[in-house]
Specification:
five-stranded antiparallel beta sheet; 27% strand; globular; single chain; four-stranded mixed beta sheet; alpha+beta
Length: 225
């Protein structure tokens, strides 16, 4: 199974971006783009849509594809209907993943002054240290993005993560830019990092594989892809 991940900075994406959005965005994307009032939000939206196109083209071997967004904001490619797309951004960094399987990705770059102790307490987490907190946070967001589906958002708050060599959740940390990345994908998937053209490959520290758990047996049955 071909599963590719790309993490790229906003500056590199903007340098590569075609100048006229109307020339390459589809109707559903233009509707979404025009819904943002702030120029910075529009700029980041364009960067994310372009990253998805470049990554899907590289993974599928096809020309730059046209993408759409459904009513729930999920990205899809009509010309490649079997491919699943996932996109995340934090600060000036974007992460994307594409595969012909269910998947979800999340990236987080810690913000100065963020009260991790308060956030961890609100989630009922015993450990507010940055590595543990962001592992929990990104894994939960990546898991949520596999759907969305009925009950997933409510279930997300009950998630706890345990190490599992065959787990569907995977985590990495990029120390130079302090990026935390999580992927949710079938255990047999073999992710490959695709460096964005014109950028140097990023060195990622593998933080292992994880599976979700809960005190609720009914929820546990819904946690596997």
């Amino acid at each position: 199974m071909s599963l590719q991940i790309c993490v790229a900075p906003l500056a590199a994406l903007l340098t590569d971006l075609p100048p006229i959005p109307e020339a390459w965005l589809t109707r559903s994307e233009m509707t979404r783009h025009q819904s943002f009032s702030l120029p910075t939000r529009r700029q980041r939206y364009l960067a994310g849509r372009w990253l998805l196109r470049r990554l899907l083209a590289a993974a599928s071997g096809q020309a730059l594809p046209q993408l759409e967004q459904d009513a729930e904001g999920r990205s899809l490619c009509p010309a490649l209907p079997s491919w699943r797309l996932s996109l995340s951004h934090s600060g000036d960094w974007f992460g994307a993943a594409v595969a012909e399987e269910v998947l979800g990705i999340d990236i987080e770059q810690p913000r100065p002054g963020r009260d991790l102790a308060a956030l961890a307490a609100g989630l009922g987490l015993p450990d507010a240290a940055a590595p543990a907190f962001y592992r929990h946070w990104t894994l939960g967001e990546a898991w949520l993005k596999q759907g969305p589906g009925p009950g997933l958002l409510a279930a997300q708050r009950q998630l706890r993560w345990v190490p599992d060599a065959q787990g569907a959740g995977r985590c990495w940390h990029q120390p130079a830019h302090d990026l935390h990345l999580a992927l949710w994908a079938p255990p047999q998937a073999a992710p490959r990092f695709w460096p964005y053209p014109g950028t140097a490959p990023l060195a990622w520290a593998d933080q292992g594989r994880w599976r979700p758990a809960s005190d609720d047996p009914a929820l546990n049955r819904s946690f596997s892809p």
